[in-house]
């Protein structure tokens, strides 16, 4: 119960490196841990443990566990009544090691403490209060308790109405039911678009407003006050400030073409041999990762001088791809970077050490890679094939999208494994966005008993143009969609309309 790996790391039950642990006395080879039949495999075993841990029952009874481990049932008559007693040496303060003079007894006492362990320090002398979980039972949003709804929103899966741990039944038809994916198309909050007129390449939701960058551009360090633009021809990047108007975009006729270009602050040239094909930044804005036609990834440290201009220092050059680097994704929370190439390879890098971890493969050039910020799962999109991988490189599921319009971009949400929510969003050439869920072996509506991606929802933007950018806000309740015509469409989970102040 105190091993975190039981709730998030199935690989600890698997002999992935094929170590030789010998055989048992009965002649069985020691390999993967044997999993109960009800769990199918290690992934399902750990997922169900986590689902149970996050359940309402655990939340409402967690205080009893606290009483046993840290509270009044740790010692005394309450501990005896709860059958929660251990060897005296395991309790803090029961033995004064320094007072033991016999070296043999002292060594034996320390050995027993180190091997058996010790109980945690007692923190509470009275029964711990029960966690109060607001009731949330309703048929549709109009009958929901707004206060309880607001409390449960942070626990709900991405883009799923709070209040249900499983998917709604197929025969359910009411709008706004718990567990349903109900998105309302909203007017785009007033913001600005920066860069040259063209496709939307990045979107930032900031204080209820939506900002976007067009062309080859990206907001830098999740700030609306600056963005980076790059050139696919001569490996040049430009740093712009959006807080003041200034020079026109390189190659444009003048500032009158687009009043929201911003002020050109710094220019850096010849960052690759050939053009820059992919660019992203870390969340803190201190590093820029560029991928080029030369098949290399360059990692840069960027710093601002007192003059207001920036300096760029190369930290590392990462090699491993054999063709143009087409996409890069970073996750500071998971400590990894993922890059995709036109040669069909995906490489996972250590974000801190800037070193190679492992490779994955597709048969076609990569269109997009994306990282689930909560569990590290990796989404890869190549031609019409989307795959979902674990952070350790094990394939979880895949889906061929040949029957759909050509995929043009994709993004992974922050959905946890134990949640029934949207895991992947795919933008298509015809202007649609498809939302994908993952069916698990234990799910009632999974006939195959294997993990596979299932279509949960299709969104219509109202325009028959290719989708170029998909962005979710931090709470995973708002979805912004950019297309190649420079338009942004905004969808909001239905419950957000009801809990607005």
UniProtKB/TrEMBL annotation:
WD repeat segments: 269-310, 318-359
Please report the stretch or stretches of sequence annotated as the BEACH domain: 1-131
Q: Which Pfam families match?
A: Beach, WD40
For whether the record's keyword set contains Repeat, the answer is yes
Alphabetized, the UniProt keywords read: Repeat, WD repeat
Superkingdom assignment: Eukaryota
InterPro entries, per database record = BEACH_dom, BEACH_dom_sf, BEACH_domain_protein, WD40/YVTN_repeat-like_dom_sf, WD40_repeat_CS, WD40_repeat_dom_sf, WD40_rpt
Name by which UniProt lists this protein:
BEACH domain-containing protein
**Source organism (scientific name):** Aplanochytrium stocchinoi
